[in-house]
Automatic annotation (TrEMBL):
Pfam families: XAP5 (PF04921). This is FAM50A/XAP5 C-terminal domain-containing protein. GO terms for biological process: chromatin organization. Signal peptide: none annotated. One of its GO terms (cellular component) is nucleus.
Amino acid sequence: MERIEREELRKQWLKRQEEIKDEDIEITYSYWDGSGHRKTVECKKGDTISRFLDLCRQQIHELRSVNVDNLLYIKEDLIIPHHYTFYDFIINKARGKSGPLFNFDVHDDVRLVHDATVEKDESHAGKVVERSWYEKNKHIFPASRWEVFDPEKNYGKYKIKDSKKSK
């Protein structure tokens, strides 16, 4: 009897996960060619980064002839591999160098607090760049800070900004 109940709960959980993956999300990103060109794209939580980049490519005239394999998505200074889905990061509450990778409440891409150890409650817009641009500029800021996302790596603990404290 307990085995049957467990199996039923497992099926319900899997069904719920598929429903979550099918939910729409709006991703704010910045096409980066040395300066940012902010845009938004709507996709599903279960979409791969590759699918997301394809949608971005269709929005940006200069990228329409570029193969998705030649695009990179950088979030919180991490190069996100194409095979991951947004769901993967959401469900695992994945963290980057300066906080959560995906909060879906992107505000201005400017930090007003000058303490790098203070985590803001929003995430920055990710950058979409051409691989060739990255290869030419990886020795120059900001590309010099970027590294490939490693799910095994701990990117550090941050304290949450206390919004009640005076500025």
